[in-house]
Amino acid sequence: MATPPEVDQDQNIYVNFDSKGPYISIPQFYAGRSVFITGGTGFMGKVLVEKLLRSCPDIKNIYLLMRPKRGQEVSMRLNELLNSPLFDTIRKEKPNELNKVTPICGDITLHQLGISESDQTLLCRNVSVVFHSAATVKFDEKLELSVKINMLGTKRLVELCHRMLNLDALVHVSTAYCNCDRTEIQEVIYKTPYDPANIINLISWLPEDVLDKLTPLLIGKRPNTYTFTKALTEQMLLEEAGNLPVAIVRPSIVIACFSEPAAGWLDNWNGPTAIISAVGNGLFRTIICEKDFLCDVIPVDIVINLVITAAWRTATTKSRDMKIYNCVTSRQQPITWGEFVGYSIQNMIRHPMEGVIWYPTGALRMNRLINAVQGYFVHYIPAYFLDMFAWAMGKKPIMIKIQNKLEKAVGCLEYFTTHQWRFTDDNVRELLTHMNTSDRNTFQFDVTQIDWDTYFERYILGLRAFLCKQNPKTLPSSRKKMTILYSVHQMSKILIVIFTWRFLMARSKKIRDAWSGILRIILQTLSLLPFF
């Protein structure tokens, strides 16, 4: 491990013992530089853009690869992006910084990324740092599209990077689960069973229906096309990067912001968020999950801080060794799935959603039969009744559709809630030793600083405010409703026990006789006590 930087008392600057010359801070490094970002309109990409603008004030330009969407030109999409709540702080404090963001019209699935010749020239002349986060994160994506976006898109970006005159760093955002067919995952690139070029050729000449049939055989022990193509992409990068300065960041399950720019901010239902929301609303109550297995979730702002720092380190060391960073929490700040669900339910009771239909509870179990039976009674039977009621009131029945979507989401997540991995993160921890105190505070990615109790309160409040668009002023009335629902929930359990017992007594003479015997013993015992 490298020796940490030390202050030179005479010059008041930091000096790295393993490098030549004075310490260059992260904001200083980005000063006057132009960066190119793919996936800038995605969950992580937005946080990356905001962080660069806010914490690297002298950055020159941020070029975002964007495609027209739903009839909107890229300029309109950029304006919508920069007017989102995520950029509130910058709009209030440094609005001119937003002018540094320039859209580059293109598409990750097209030849040469669909970028015009003039824009390619612009990028090749000016860009010195590239962040590649564009990807399809759908677990059930068809293999053809997953290869086109995750693999071919990366291949085309690397080809463009080879033409960049002043490229100092290319950071590729992968996933900690790209090697999920292994139980121990180190910060290395593992050889894939197939040559990436062969898989790319395969999708070009095989028809879609044949590819669909071959997909389970190709992905093997991996659960989906996402992890399969991400692993192939890393192998392809190793083969095609050549002398490019490349680093790979592998986050685990990325969820809401830990602290910045807004604690608890998130803008999608990916991962466990949709299920947690359903639990909080009383719509979902049982799931296949090993509660004692480690749940590796990571706040998005911690991932982005590591991404920005990895680019700085790659460029300032001028190393051609491809560094891999496993951005995970299970090694240094572990939390189990049982704790994850417990913290979530605890905070959803403390800060309830509007429109909750039942008191939030959640059962994690590995018995599929019991889970299926309970799921039918607590998920589908109430959904049928609610849909019948909605139909009778002239409204559109939606509850069965919601339950079907939730079942699909749970199915995609099940592999990750029933398996466990051991990740190493030595490179991440070493990276911290090369940063001065100011950089470590500004670009904080030390997961040992996470307090899960505090974080989950922010997560649930963020889910309520940013995703569900619910006003904090409705919290008092929602809490009153939650108190009522708790009483109803407890009463319903008592009634179920009473009705079940009466049903059993009515059906079985042995149970009646046993119950009578128990009552006689209780009464006889009480009669012996002096106060009876």
Structure description:
With 532 residues, the protein is an alpha/beta fold. It folds into two domains: 6-264 and 295-334 and 421-467, Rossmann fold, CATH 3.40.50; 476-532. The chain has helices at 26-30, 43-55, 74-82, 88-93, 117-126, 143-162, 196-205, 208-219, 225-240, 273-280, 300-317, 337-350, 368-392, 399-417, 426-433, 437-442, 452-467, 475-507, 509-528; strands at 6-8, 13-15, 34-38, 61-66, 101-105, 127-132, 169-173, 184-185, 246-251, 253-255, 286-288, 297-299, 323-327, 363-365, 422-423. The strands form five sheets. A seven-stranded parallel beta sheet has the order 5-4-3-6-7-9-13, with helices on both faces. Strand 3, helix 2 (43-55) and strand 4 (61-66) form a beta-alpha-beta unit. The radius of gyration is 27 Å and the shape is elongated. The model is unreliable at 1-17 (pLDDT under 50).
